[in-house]
Design goal:
With 158 residues, the chain is mainly α. 49% of the residues lie in helices and 9% in strands. It is built from seven helices and two strands. A two-stranded antiparallel sheet has the order 1-2. α3 packs across α6. The protein is elongated and about 70 Å long.
Amino acid sequence: MKCRKCGSVKHRNKQGRLWCSPCNTITCKNWRKDHSEELHVINRRAHLKARYGMTTEEFMYIFDFQGRRCAICKSLEPRGKHTWSIDHEDIAGVGVVVRGILCAPCNIVLGYYELYGIPVGVEFKNYLANPPAGQAMRKKEGRKSTLDGWSLQECAMQ
């Protein structure tokens, strides 16, 4: 069997590729280069769903509810080398409960507060007492629950 790109002889593999391995590598690299924005969106959606059980729309709903800023310090910038951080809590038997969207410094301080009990400002304590993701999802669902935190999986099941 011959490669459709370069014409070299190749053995048929399990995937039934139409190209030899080097041509397939070049084709994939070129596709990723030409579709980098589309690939970023695909990867972001997959990450949100796999890690937090939420859709891009749910993320944007929560972020809009927070005023498109950090839920604790109200910064309009993520102030880190990446994007906004999704604050969550892993609860045994329930799964991931998203609490809000934070800038990098607030996410780090909150982590240290929860792990080591370092002193934090009242903003952090208010945030933990009434997480914005829970408020947003209750508003979206038209609920009046006073639960601390709200699992997005639970919202999807309602």
